[in-house]
Amino acid sequence: MSLSILLVIGLGIFLGFFFQTVTGFAGALIALPILLLVLGLQDAIAYISIFYLFSSVYLVSQEWKNIDKKIILKLSIATIIGVGIGIWVLTHGKPFFLKKGLGIFILLYVLYTMYAKDKVFKKPKLEFLIGLAGGFFSGLFSTGGPLYVIVVKNSSTTMKSFRATMFGVLGLITVIRIPTLYTAGILNMEQVHYSLYIMPFFILAIYLGKKAYAKLNEVVLKNGVLALLFLSGVMLLIR
């Protein structure tokens, strides 16, 4: 792998996991379009999943006491089913159409965040369906976080609890996704090897993200994330 490709991957991982650390989600939504500039869809998903494993181990251990374990348990069955279906589609689907689908998904999420009202989804059946869809997009694109936001936000009373519980949800997804990707032949040891070269970008993202979380204005940060996501979605549609 050339140095230029490693640098692009490093940039994507840095930006994705910086915002992931600050907000509790949206890491893959930001990182994936950047990685797709130099990688195929399956390889990009594999690299993001590897770093989700690293981030989950660290962030879940740091935020364990603030995580709402009941929400994690409630979403577990739907997540397991959804991730399995998503990875099957990733293995057998056509990358061109999958990339366009990701672009549409990102733009729909931006529109939802801008216009949807709070506390819409309260019924258990809807929560199961959202968990299933979140698992599907997590298996397919590693981008199910926004759907889980709907459920977790409705159940969390504070920003600290919301952020920590999102780390827990993404940790659950990672535990399911890593062995499934390896079994499907999407994740391999060569990718793990190259991930070591990208590790400094990841560590810097986690460090700066924790610093930023303590200082940044929440409204400004939210708008910045939405702007980046919008650009990412448009880029995927027009490429």
TrEMBL record:
Keywords: Cell membrane, Membrane, Transmembrane, Transmembrane helix, Transport
GO CC, one annotated term: plasma membrane
InterPro entries: TM_pro_TauE-like, TSUP
TM region positions: 34-59, 71-90, 96-116, 128-150, 162-182, 194-213, 219-238
Subcellular location: Cell membrane
Classification via Pfam families: TauE (PF01925)
Topology class, membrane: Multi-pass membrane protein
PANTHER family: MEMBRANE TRANSPORTER PROTEIN, TRANSMEMBRANE PROTEIN YFCA
Family listed: Belongs to the 4-toluene sulfonate uptake permease (TSUP) (TC 2.A.102) family.
Full protein name: Probable membrane transporter protein
Organism: Polaribacter filamentus
